[in-house]
Amino acid sequence: MDDDKFLVKQTLDGDKKAFEMIVQKYQRPVVNYIGRMVGERELALDFTQEVFVKAYSSLGSYRLQYKFSTWLFKIASNYVIDHWRKKKLPTVSIDQNPNEAEDCLPIQIPDDKPSVIKKLELQELRSRIDRALARLPGSLRELFVWRHVNGLSYEEMAEIKGLPVGTVKNRVFQAKELLRRLLESEA
Amino acid sequence: MNCFSLTQAYRYLEGELTPPERQELESHLASCRMCREAVEARRRLTEAASTLPDLEIPADFSARVMARIAGSQFSLRALLISLAAGCSAILVALGLAMVVTRQSLPGLFVGLNQYVLRNLKTLSLTFIKFFKVFLLIFKIFSNLIEELIGGLSVLTSLISPQTQILLITLTLFLSVTLFMMLKRKFSPRDTHE
Question: Does residue A92 belong to any structural domain of this protein?
Answer without folding.
Answer: no
